[in-house]
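hey can u check if this looks right to u? its 398 residues, i copy pasted from the old doc so theres a chance i mangled smth
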Amino acid sequence: MHSFTVQLRKASNWWSHLCTGRDVYGRIDEEHHRQRILVMTSAFWLVMVVLFTFSVHLLMDLSPQGKIAANTLCATTLLGVLLSMAILRLLDDRIMSLNVMLFIFCGAFAAACFIFGGSESPTYPLLIMAPAMAAIVGSASLSVSWGLLILAFWVAVVQAERHGVQFEQIIVPENHSMAMMMAYTAMAMSVVSIIIIYAEMNKSLRLSLQATNSELDHLSSHDQLTRLPNRRFYDERMALALQRAAELDGMTGLLFLDLNEFKKINDTHGHGAGDKLLIAVAQRLQNSLRETDLVARLGGDEFVAVLEDVKSPEEVTRIAHKLSQAIEQPLYIRQQILSLSASIGVAIFPLDGRQKQELEENADRAMYLAKKRGLSVALASLESPNTPTPAIRPANRI
């Protein structure tokens, strides 16, 4: 069953690509969506007409005129579908393609009404398919137009019969019930097929839009170079972290990181080497933090880390030194060994502030203090120039 489904999907994708010239797995917009519905429903209708034509020959004894009429109806439907698909492929005009197909379809079925008994013709109710197709493939206004046209034809046929007009009846009475049953079965199958195809196409479009929205949301919240979260993501996460810390009476660490003399590396080795260095630093920062922590790139060579659910200031300091040591490991870029260091400023909620802006200002101030003193880590609570920073190791200079 699975193999049959796969083969059926491959066949439908091949037919869709043949008729539209579009990649089935490319970007699905509304135009592509409606074109695929037109292609799939027209293919289903073509197959069904062909099958019912052969069924009529097998189930009923047809007169020579009946055989000619059935074969002509099948050939006309085939012509309408192929001409419509050619217009769609060559002119990429969905509305023209739809109207041409419906015009040939309705013309053939309306003509069949005159030889199959007027309003008693099996093709008479099948004309309802025209406005239905126009609705899902074209537009509401197009559906109304075709609906009014079909309604006018139905009324005209009924009025003609009331005024004594005799339509040709080449279906013998004993076969009439069978013919009508086949017609209504065909109509029911067509309606169901349109609903199924429309639902499947809508599902594909919805999934494609969801994937696109997810991608756009990721791009809007992540740095394209390092793939780290950006400032927008950090702002949202930091606000939530402070809210949770306040509710649970916990502690949160905020680390501002700035790479030392990064501009010199860019100037000496080129921006390509600088980009690779930033990517490597981002990876090292992620690998050095816990899964519950966040590291983001604010811009340039500036990074920020948010440490949630920390137990003590010493734990924050230990993690800050761990990040510094990770950054200071030699980097092999373009067959060259580059050494790097960072200045890290630390602020802790609630010791250094309870508001996001206050913590950021303190962490930023501590970071510049570390850079000024040649330190790897500086704590906001010990930022006084006259107060030595305990357990602080000098940063390695480039």
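The chain is about 65% helix and 10% strand.
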